[in-house]
Amino acid sequence: MIVYMITDATLLFESLLKTTEVKRVDFKSSQYRLDTDTLKSEFVKDILCMANTPGGDGYIVLGVSSRGEQRDVVGISTHHDSAALEELVASVIEEPIHFEYFPIQYKGTSCALLHIPSSSARPHWPKKDFGKLRKHVFYTRRSSGNREASLSEIREMFLSSIRVTDIPRRRPKLPLHILDELAEFDLPKRTQAMYEMLRSIASTVSLGKYSLVSQEKYGWGIPKTFALVRNVGTGVANDYVVFMYPIAIRKNDIISARSSVAHIISAYKYYLETREKTIKRGWVVNGHVSYRLNQTNYTQGKRVSPIGKRLMHNSYNLVYISYQNIYTRLTVLEWGTGDLQNSWDEPWGKIVKWKSFITDKSYYEFFIPAVASKADLLDRISNLVSWVNTHPL
Known about the structure:
Strand order of the largest sheet: 11-12-13-19-22-21-20
């Protein structure tokens, strides 16, 4: 995965208004419409052509009309979610294209900036017919607009994607770009395969007590499934709550995952506070408030115990593992999170440290993007566990 960062999108927006580079910058006066497959394909084609075009990062500026070198900021009235747009592109295009959508406020006018980093995985192409796009046809961007690529342009795309730094990794058993064991799966099977990868490597990295937890969907967007594993390599009972995502992780996915863990612990705390009261058929009832505790259980052999008890009494961490990218600019405090203590990046992922509002303990969040193979997952999880063993809470 290409790691990229825009520290001030507004400054970049202002500089692009003055640019004369038309091949790598595209100005559009209105927001993309995504009402039909045809309209969606126009957006996908723009991203595809920009990713296939040589010469560095590409940008699409929304809310700005362009006539020659004259730029007029006209604004847009709506915005799209960056991860949702990336999911759309991923569903159509072969080889992931990483880009990000930035809402911009410029002199009181709402605009947007799409950043498409230079792709080392070029060329990209549609893997199916979709709207105006044709399967297995190569597209690129020229000064005159988006076009089907010529044979020489296609050849240049393939040659430019072969870098000297890639050669040691390219043994005969590996494909040209990256070993992707999940590409052929549909989304439900990809999720299942990712959890199976974690289960199969757990003991190799000193993780035990693996449980795949399925929750009742309460109605507030909580994920149904996560894996629960424990670090058995140290004397400290350290649990990992692992959420697997088959495409990209959006901001709302992270908030929902945090909330699901917080609700489980809160339900168990509520149970402790009310266990002397009426308990009927797995429901703890107190006035008009009730929690379904039987849906927050995990099975370990023949013994069934509440997850809330395990998480409340032991140290735990949250782990987000994505097949593609992860939204990591979330620093706002959401319910179930806590006080932000620190955050930093490691070569294998991003780390955020919180002090929980629910348990009054500290815990880590780990963000691990672009996992496409069992070997890659083993390497990343091994680094994660090693890091935690040397940085106890």
